[in-house]
Amino acid sequence: MRGAAHLPAAAEPRSPDAQRLLHVDLVERRLTHHAFDALASLARPGDAWVLNDAATLPASLAGTVGERSVELRLAGRRASGRWRAILFGEGSWRDDTDARPPPPALAPGDGIDLGAGLSAVVTAVDARAARLLEVRFEPAGDAFWRALYALGRPIQYRYLRRALTLGELQTAFAARPWAVELPSAGRPLTAARVAALRAAGAEVHTLTHAAGPSATGDATLDARLPLPERYELSEATARAVGDALDAGRRVVAVGTSVTRALEGAVRRHGRLRPGVDETDLRIGPTTERRVVDALLTGAHDPSSSHHALLRAFAPAELLRRALGESRRRGYLAHELGDSWFLA
Prior knowledge:
It is a single chain. The chain is 21% helix and 27% strand. It is α/β, with parallel strands linked by helices. The strands form 3 sheets. The protein has a 9-stranded mixed beta sheet with strand order 2-1-17-16-14-3-12-13-15. Strands 5-6-7-10-9-8 form a 6-stranded antiparallel beta sheet, with helices on one face. The chain has a two-stranded parallel sheet with strand order 4-11. Strand 9 and strand 10 form a beta hairpin. It is globular and about 60 Å long.
């Protein structure tokens, strides 16, 4: 992607009503521009569309280690009930994460005071990135969840003029609180637009994927994104997607998180096995897709892991053209911008 134009970010979140859509035709190698409401016209009867119904957590916690102020950002819950978390030094969401001072070095057994009786105890430190921790929270159980929603704030984006509320960072179909950042591809899919997909003959199904952090403040750790992430595939969705594959119908993923969950499940188990699991699959230009035929995603810059995933769908030249067209047409990138449909 050398030389590709970067896309501007939104100063204000793009309203779902104002969302723009670029159709990247993977067969004809053609680009067409639409208002987002045209998405249903690009659906086919029999398509199996899969949405990520994870709700967004208040995943940013202010705390202290000794006399130092820190920020602890959740990065996903483990099967053990412990959490991956990323520690940041002093600063706020207005500061560039890469420019904030490094956090204090911690070791297993050290604690982070998060206020109001909540603390995080370090249980492990990543061998390659000292700010990537595994922690357990005290108190645990229901008391932890009450404290998290009382003390936590949603992870913010410094390119915006204002902080967003947790409610602004949810999709219309959000269910269980698993995602540490908004599964943003589904944000413009209002209830009316989902109904329009169904009216066009598409099936709409859901899975839950714990979408992880987009930045860590550490270039080496950023290069490892996305980190392993938990997902749950229901029997109904596994059966519906399997039926679509058997019948030669299109499987459409709404978001890179859905793509990782479906493709990761098949690689790990040889099939779409229902249940809770974790995927560490990183998708790129050499990845052979076994499940997903088409993808609805945000307009991502070429430096991101999300954009690297697009190389599994489209050649570099077509993506370069898409970036150039998006730039010329004023598309907005990142979590709260416009959309691409690769199909």
